[in-house]
Amino acid sequence: MGSACLSGILLEVSAHPKPGLVTPRSMGAHADMDQQTFMLTSAAIAPCFHRCAAIGLTHGGEAAAVLPPVRAVGRDYDVLLMAASNGVNTQRGALFALGITAAAAGRAHHHNSAPTSTQIFAEAAAITAGLV
Known about the structure:
It is a single chain. By secondary structure, the protein is mostly helical. The protein has one domain (2-127). Helices cover 65% and strands 0% of the residues. The protein is built from five helices and no strands. The chain has helices at 2-14, 35-58, 67-84, 92-111, 117-127. The longest helix has 24 residues, at 35-58.
């Protein structure tokens, strides 16, 4: 799951055109980031997704109890993200969303060796219940 998250991030930044967003040919609406910034921060945060998936895979309790350790890991990697980008918010949204998704995939795999996307999304909803 962690590798799939990293692949998704790298493929997304490689796509062109995306009006207003960073691509290989454009900084979009961003004066402070480019594709290289995204590549460097992607490398910095890639292990986060493996760790979140492992949390989901090994946590046998209630789904909501997965969120605190995933958040703690996310905070650690947010520091690395900001250091790798010199303080530019390149991928905080992806860090959060994919961290939750990786944990949900781990939980779904714990319950079913070949989980469907529907099962993964249900786990993500359970993990984040009451968050918003």
